[in-house]
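Title: Comparing notes on inverse folding

I've been comparing how different people in this forum approach sequence design from structure. To keep things fair, I'm posting one structure and asking everyone to reply with a full sequence. Here's the target:
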């Protein structure tokens, strides 16, 4: 679905055409609004560009991979009782959060310089 339709910014419309002079009360054709507009394409390209900056953990790579962030992420586990009932076994999900204070900004990220190599 187009983002502008999903967000309710615009709605699909259909214009009825009455082009037959002998039957002015009959619809001869219709013109529908486009499924995707240029704004929709721009929004989807922006989302794609943003998602390309993320690690698999959903944090931005320049934050998640930064060597100065070592020790600043904490993880909590939560049991989902609905998934547990469906799976017939306990299902838990891990939620990771950044605990670095906003008063201590992370230096600029440089791939290969401010990253930590795995042991």
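Reply #1:
Here's my take.
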């Amino acid at each position: 679905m187009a983002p502008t339709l999903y967000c309710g910014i615009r709605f699909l419309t259909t214009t009825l055409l009455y082009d037959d002079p002998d039957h002015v009360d009959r619809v001869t054709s219709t013109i529908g609004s486009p499924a995707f507009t240029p704004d929709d394409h721009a929004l989807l390209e922006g989302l794609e560009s943003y998602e390309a900056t993320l690690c698999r953990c959903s944090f931005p790579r320049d934050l998640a991979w930064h060597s100065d962030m070592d020790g600043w992420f904490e993880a909590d586990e939560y049991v989902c009782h609905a998934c547990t009932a469906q799976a017939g076994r306990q299902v838990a999900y891990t939620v990771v959060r950044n605990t670095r204070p906003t008063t201590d900004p992370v230096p600029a990220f440089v791939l290969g310089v401010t990253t930590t190599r795995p042991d």
